[in-house]
UniProtKB/TrEMBL annotation:
GO molecular function annotation: ATP binding; ATP hydrolysis activity
GO annotations of cellular component type: cytoplasm
Domain AAA+ ATPase residue range list: 230-404, 428-544
Entry-linked Gene3D superfamilies: 1.10.8.60, P-loop containing nucleotide triphosphate hydrolases
Native source organism of the sequence: Heligmosomoides polygyrus (Parasitic roundworm)
Protein name (Swiss-Prot/TrEMBL): AAA domain-containing protein
Keywords: ATP-binding, Coiled coil, Nucleotide-binding
A Pfam cross-reference name: AAA
């Protein structure tokens, strides 16, 4: 929901701007550069603000003061926040500030976990950093000084404190915003903070989901670092939205001045010389360019720099060369959250009752933490009588990140009656082969199965797996099964698998098809059991009279038939027709009635008779005999 109310409020969706530096004036530096808010010039005109106008930014997670700048590269009702890592399409509010206060002198407290000396260089840097800034007393401003992460907290100016003091309340009003002019004098003091190890570990442990990743960070990085032991470098990887950035941000906040946090290869390349010794270097790289200078500096950092450890986050572990990966003793995949982890995340995001949260968690297989957050946000703008209904309606509109692109015993029972399989000590069937002539609804059965089981569905046609590039066909199969495991439980449906499943080493097979088949068999069961990769083989043959009657009744349900016995006549006349051919017969008969009279209200038997002369069964009898022999185990 986007809205602009002149001189009061602008509410819109966030967007990322690739070259945002071009929208800022050349003299923007420090606070003014970090806390800029980009909006379209037309939106600024409607809102009634001018460039450098102070505004209050309110998002779902935080609130701060910034300044607006015009940017024609974004939509009229879009907002770009430079101070935040807010993802796209988040709703934020922009509220103009009309009467900022001016102070001649401001006292600030530097909060740092490390001992820091106040000298003229630091004073000049902070004075320059805050020039033309809009600050709030008591609200910390994060900044970096020679690789050290600091927080400077403005104290209450004496003249403002006296102004706001009363008998009932001696605190400064929280709405005051102070403009730091070039003539304002800044005085500094320091506070050295030493948080306890329990406090540091609590922030990481309190994050919902990501149990394995959190335990890895605490066991190999945080706990050894706090006990002055030897830390271990860690490589994190996983789907977008799985929580990697959130986890690294929490780690950076936990370590404060002892952590060096970079969110791109460009930033890492620029700040490499500022990395302090014995610090934990935290790198969040959404994309990896092996030709980038920052990539070579990563190797240099791992080999030669006296930092305590490196925590690197990438989308795919394969994005790194093997020579770089071996420098990380620990690798951990940030998996798509399991059901219990989704419950924890949803409890953090919504105040719904536990029973509603648990039910929603069961129906959100494959949803990452980012997907769940998007679902909760979308539910606020979705119709429904209760919060549970709104969440369910929003779930139908939000697609899991891992999906953007069989039969009762094998699929439904393992989900609904898991205890029965455990009681008998057996594994549920994991593979089913649906075989039969074309047009007999094998694909439709698989899709209905996915819908009935509420599981994710990955469909691929056999020929789509082949590529002209060496190794790409096998990689396509590996990626498919990897994605299926990430968003499990999942139905992986191979349509037209006969294009892949040729006999190995036969004259009709090629080297590519042999390699693709070998990769497929490896993914189906690893390298262990060889007796049969597919537990069940189910023959989906031509429809019997009862099935033909059901198909015809379904396809003619919205038609008006002239005679009552048309359905029975069709059933008797369509022996050997496949399901697809029956659908075509019903459709063609209706078209004939329309051609005869566009205002016709019913379909007569003669229309079906004429259709049966043009649409005939095309399933080869010899093919049916082959399927029957296969069903009996005779090949």
């Amino acid at each position: 929901m986007s809205v602009v109310k002149p001189r009061c409020l602008m509410k819109g969706f966030t967007v990322r701007v690739q070259h945002w530096e071009d929208c800022l004036p050349p003299d923007s530096y420090g606070w003014l550069r970090r806390y800029s808010v980009l909006i379209h010039p037309e939106a600024m005109e409607i809102l009634g603000v001018t460039p450098r106008q102070p505004v209050r930014v309110q998002s779902l997670e935080r609130e701060y003061v910034g300044v607006v700048w015009p940017c024609k590269e974004i939509g009229v009702l879009r907002i770009c926040l430079l101070a935040d890592d807010t993802p796209s399409d988040e709703i934020v509010s922009i509220i103009p500030i009309w009467n900022p206060l001016h102070a001649q002198r401001i006292s600030m407290t530097i909060v740092s976990p490390q001992t820091i000396r106040i000298n003229d260089s630091l004073k000049d840097y902070i004075q320059m950093y805050l020039t033309n800034a809009y600050i709030q007393p008591g609200i910390a401003i994060p900044m970096s000084y020679y690789g050290q992460c600091l927080e400077i907290v403005p104290d209450v100016p004496l003249d403002l404190a006296l102004k706001d003091m009363s008998l009932e309340d001696g605190e400064l009003e929280s709405e005051h915003v102070i403009f730091v002019t070039t003539d304002c004098t800044v005085s500094l003091s320091t506070v050295h903070t030493t948080p306890s190890s329990d406090d540091l570990l609590f922030e990481i442990a309190s994050i919902g989901g990501m149990h394995i990743a959190k335990k890895t960070i605490m066991d190999f990085v945080l706990t050894p670092f706090l006990s002055e032991g030897s830390c271990c470098s860690v490589l994190l990887w996983g789907l977008p939205g799985s929580g990697k950035t959130f986890l690294l941000s929490a780690l950076a906040r936990t370590l404060k001045g002892s952590g060096f946090y970079c969110q791109s290869m460009d930033e890492f390349n620029e700040k490499y010389a500022l990395i302090p010794p014995k610090s934990v270097v935290i790198l969040d790289w959404p994309s990896v360019d092996k030709e980038h200078k920052g990539f070579s500096k990563l190797v240099q950092l791992l080999d030669d720099h006296p930092c305590a450890a490196v925590v690197l986050s990438v989308r795919e572990a394969e994005d790194l060369d093997l020579g770089v990966r071996v420098r990380f003793p620990v690798e951990v995949e940030v998996d798509v959250p399991m059901e219990q982890e989704r419950v924890e995340i949803l409890r953090f995001l919504t105040s719904s009752p536990d029973e509603d949260i648990e039910e929603l968690a069961k129906r959100t297989h494959g949803f990452t933490a980012g997907d769940l957050k998007s679902l909760v946000v979308a539910s606020r703008y979705t119709e429904g009588h209760s919060e549970a209904e709104k969440l369910e309606n929003a779930r139908k509109r939000v697609r899991p990140t891992g999906i953007r692109q069989f039969i009762l015993e094998a699929v439904i029972w393992p989900q609904k009656h898991r205890d029965a399989f455990e009681r008998f000590g057996i594994d549920p069937p994991s593979g089913i082969l649906l075989y039969g002539p074309p047009g007999c609804s094998k694909t439709l059965v698989a899709r209905a199965l996915a819908s009935e089981s509420k599981m994710n569905f990955l469909a691929v046609k056999g020929p789509e797996l082949f590529s002209k590039w060496v190794g790409e066909s096998e990689k396509a199969i590996r990626d498919l099964f990897s994605r299926a495991r990430q968003v499990a439980p999942t139905i992986v449906f191979f349509d037209e698998i006969d294009a892949v499943g040729s006999s190995r080493g036969s004259e009709k097979s090629s080297g590519v098809s042999d390699r693709v088949l070998a990769q497929l068999l490896t993914e189906l069961d690893g390298l262990e059991k060889q007796s049969g990769r597919l537990d069940r083989a189910i023959y989906v043959g031509l429809p019997c009279p009862r099935t033909r009657r059901a198909i015809i009744e379904m396809r003619t349900k919205r038609m008006t038939l002239a005679e009552e016995d048309i359905v029975e006549k069709l059933v008797s006349k369509t022996e050997g027709y496949s399901g697809a051919e029956l659908v075509a017969v019903c459709r063609q008969a209706a078209l004939l009635a329309m051609r005869e009279n566009i205002d016709a209200t019913e379909v007569r038997w003669n229309h079906f008779e004429e259709t049966l002369t043009t649409i005939v069964p095309r399933t080869d009898r010899q093919m049916l005999q082959v399927y029957e022999r296969f069903k009996r185990g005779v090949v």
